[in-house]
Amino acid sequence: MTNFLQDVRYGLRLLLKNPGFTAIAVLTLALGIGANTALFSVVNGVLLNPLPYPEPDRLVAVYEKTVDFERSSITYPNFLDWQKESHSFSALGAVRSEEYNMTGVGEPERLHGHMISADFFTALGVQLPLGRNFRTEEDQSGGTPVAIISDGLWKRKFGLSADVVGKSITLNGETYTVIGVGPARITGFSPTDVFLPIGQWTDSTFRNRGIGMGTTAIGRLKAGVTAEQARAEMEKITANLAAAYPEADKGVGAAIISMKTDAVGNVRGILLVLLGAVSFVLLIACANVANLLLARSTGRAREFAIRSALGASPGRVIRQLLTESVMLGIAGGGIGLLLAKWGTGVVLAALPESLPRTEEIGIDGHVLAYTLGVSILTGVVFGLVPALKTMRRDMHDTLKEGGRGSSGARHRTQSVFVAAEMAMAVVLLVGAGLMIRSLAALWGINPGFDARNVLTFNISSTSAPNITPEQLRTKYRQGMRELGAVPGIESVSLVGGSLPMTGDSEVPFWVEGRPKPASEQEMPFAMFYLVTQDYHKVMKIPVERGRSFTERDDEHAPGVVLIDASFARKYFPNEDPIGKRLNLAFLEMRPEIVGVVGHVEHWGLGAKGHENLQAELYIPVWQIPDKFWPLLANGGQYAARTSGNPVGLTNSIREAAQRVDSSAVMYEVRPMQDIVKGSVATQRMAMILLSVFSGLALLLSAIGIYGVISYLAGQRTKEIGVRMAMGATSADVLRLVLREGMNITLVGVGIGILAALGLTRLITKMIYGVGAMDPITFAGVAILLTGVALLACYIPARRAMRVDPIIALRYE
Questions:
Q1: Closest by alpha carbon to 172, among 810, 804, 665?
Q2: How many CB atoms lie under 10 A from the CB of residue 754?
Q3: CB neighbour list of residue 328: distance below 8 Å, 6 or more residues apart
Q4: Residue 312: what are its φ and ψ, rounded to 5°?
Q5: What CA–CA distance (Å, rounded) separates 431 from 418?
Q6: What is the pLDDT of residue 297?
Q7: Which of the 8 DSSP states describes residue 581?
Q8: Cα 536 to Cα 540: distance, rounded to the nearest angstrom
Q9: Range with the largest mean pLDDT of 375-389, 406-420, 555-569
Q10: Which of 143, 357, 664, 760 could join 138 in a cystine, given CB atoms 3.0 to 4.6 angstroms apart?
């Protein structure tokens, strides 16, 4: 310990004595460690941390599984049967999202809510901070109207009053008694304001065994039961249900997935790729500092020779050097941690809104431990090679030389470090280049509609619980007239079911005149959009054949439908679909096809994984059966084309809605262009972060080769003086120095291209419209890096050209 403290004191004096060297080394390391820490905090929060529930490894997400979909929502009757028949779960809870209008407590407010079964919180292991959970008798039709509010709503509306339990709130015109307070955020689910018993929902569609309505389930496996055992049991249960209800359940299975895997989704791959990329930045920083230490050790060669002559063992000298390098690493880690705290916010800003568990991202104990470990390991990595190189010098030769000069072996080591930096920079630049080209290709895709000047928004309405479908139609028509009269709105449409790039509403169907499939699960599915007559005018979706909807396509007219070009190609490849009829299963409609419109990229620009569901159809919202109108009773979604900036009309639209209903609340106001951008958010995130990392790599590599060539040129001052005294020109010296730098660069670029050819395959699923071995990207990166390296070498080469041979020879 005494020797260690002595090493620390001596190393600190040396570092303070050379502030320029220390500052450059520490800042270089801070950049590498800071970038790694920032991204690790994201990986730690999203991927590594366990879910914040008791025994999280026993939690699974449960879905229905069909021929076309690996994970599909569960029909409520099937959930009840699963819950009753399964023995693998200690608790199995259902959940679905819903929106509510709350009135009677301050200003009317639109709430995000969840319908949950009585076992939902039990399955998660969540204890309510106040009040109690739902009882079984409350989680069924006719149960007492009760609600659990979130702690956010408790604070916002009730001031954290302890007597909130027992108070009443009004949701969608119905009164509920508050029985407890729950969390505002449940990991794996969207934020919520209120929870209601799912079994009390009386909508007839929800009780249909063939319609999922967005319901999923969370199960807690019993102690000792594995996920495989649960899957085997569920296979038997679903097979029995398929035999009992062949019309609805034939071909329906159950998918059981770790809840953590389900919550993380498909971001695991991209985050690990980015973590690997930022690790390259750290390695480049280490190589740079190692080169600095190698250069610095030349000047200290006599010091170490004297130490050895006085009895210091090689291990003692190496320990001194490693202590100094670890001190540099820890100093870089400390500043890097400060940079990471800022950088984490920058990374979060670049992350897509859909990224899960963002609320758990931050600098915690794991991140601090990671930073400390990386700092120490970094110090050892970049300090070990210079230390070993120093001890290989011959003590007697060093004392004779007086510490001047440098060995060719050290030159070679420095060149290897720079070549490695170049190689890693090539890999990062190729990755960033592929993402940039991929994003450019995505933006070049025609989404099938014109998103410019289109505003989407929702308007909630406090309707009487027993309002009739006819009254709702009248109310919506009045609202459409008011919205259409707002100055600046060119056209407006009510939208139900799906909106391009948001929502997911499918309907099974069959073409009339063709054999009817044995069950709904064997029918083909199509995305459906419930719209009014101006929808295709709002979105500028072209009509390719037939006609669009008109005002005459109302509830009194014969049923009509529009199909898209993809639907027409797939189901009417050699015939004209106009005049044919479709049978829309659970919608209980058999409309006539009156037109074919252009295909819309519903799943996002260049989206993969939904090849089985590209067919789309449009239904006049006025013609849907009366039984479905209660789903629109509490508000609707709209799309409006404007003559200017769409967001600027928000207040005018809100005022128009409130002229129809004074309690109307406008929410989720989004320009359609933002929705389109959101569809490529993951690719955009990868492009931004890879570009930042590759930019750092390029800068550090340029600094590295500049430093090495400057150092080598300085070491060859005598040689250059002799050459010039013998008649060499300045151009000859320039070529000599540049050739040395370019040799290192070309070796590094060549190795980097070979490495990139293998590593870019890891991002194949993240790119679009460009191959993982795209020759343009590889050539462009090679030219860019070579050009930057040439510029970095030119500066010390110009300095070498100006060497005065007389002064150089006299100095030596």
A1: 665
A2: 13
A3: 15, 22, 25, 26, 29, 289, 379, 383
A4: -70, 130
A5: 20
A6: 64
A7: B
A8: 5
A9: 555-569
A10: 143
pLDDT digits (tens, 9 = 90+) for 285-341: 888 887 777 766 665 656 666 666 666 666 777 777 788 888 888 888 899 898 888
DSSP 66: -
Residues facing 699 on adjacent strands: none
- Would the pLDDT of 404 be above 50? no
Which tokens hold the place of 57?
Answer: 């490894």
Structure tokens of 328?
A: 């540099």
Q: How many CB atoms lie within 10 A of CB 756?
A: 26
Classify residue 602 by its DSSP letter: T
Sign for the pseudo-dihedral over CA of 710, 714, 715, 718: positive
Give me the half-sphere count of Cα atoms (radius 13 Å) on the Cβ side of residue 168: 9
Closest listed residue to residue 285, CA positions, set 757, 693, 686 = 693
CA–CA dist 582, 631 (Å, integer): 23
Q: Note every long-range contact of 579-584, with CB atoms under 8 Å and residues 24 or more positions apart, other chains counting.
A: 580/511, 580/512, 580/513, 581/511, 581/512, 581/513, 582/509, 582/510, 582/511, 582/512, 582/617, 583/509, 583/510, 583/511, 583/512, 583/516, 584/507, 584/508, 584/509, 584/528, 584/619
Q: Strand pairing partners for 171?
A: 102, 174
Q: What is the residue type of 326?
A: V
* Residues 689 and 344 sit within 8 Å (Cβ to Cβ): no
User: DSSP characters for 125-149?
Assistant: TPPPSEE-PPPGGGSSTT---EEEE
- pLDDT over 60 (residue 410): no
Number of Cβ within 10 Å of residue 412's Cβ equals 10
Flag whether pLDDT at 810 surpasses 70: no
Mean pLDDT calculated for residue range 416-423? 86
Sequence-distant (6+) residues with CB within 8 A of 591 are: 558, 559, 560, 561, 581, 582, 584, 619, 623
Note the pLDDT of residue 550. 93
Torsion of CA 381, 387, 393, 394, to 10 degrees: -140
Q: What is the pLDDT of residues 257-270, one digit of tens each?
A: 999 988 887 778 88
Pairing of strands 525-531, 506-511: antiparallel
Q: Which residue has the tokens 């170049």?
A: 422
- Which pair of tokens denotes residue 384? 């070990």
Residue 599 in contact with residue 566, Cβ under 8 Å? yes
Q: Which of 82-96, 305-319, 396-410, 752-766 has the lowest mean pLDDT?
A: 396-410
pLDDT value of position 608: 63
**205/632 Cα distance (integer angstroms):** 13
Burial class (CB in 10 A: 0-12, 13-18, 19+), 502: middle
Please check whether residue 33 is in contact with residue 282, taking contact to mean a CB–CB distance below 8 angstroms. yes
3-state secondary structure of 460: strand
pLDDT digits (tens, 9 = 90+) for 675-706: 998 888 878 888 888 888 888 888 888 888 88
Cα separation, 483 vs 644, in Å, equals 16
Q: What is the pLDDT of residues 492-504, one digit of tens each?
A: 999 988 889 888 8
Q: Give the chain's length.
A: 812
Q: What pLDDT, on a 0 to 100 scale, did the predictor assign at position 789?
A: 87
**DSSP notation for 775-790:** HHHHHHHHHHHHHHHH
What SS3 state is found at 269?
Answer: helix
Q: In Å, how far from its chain's centre is CA 472?
A: 39
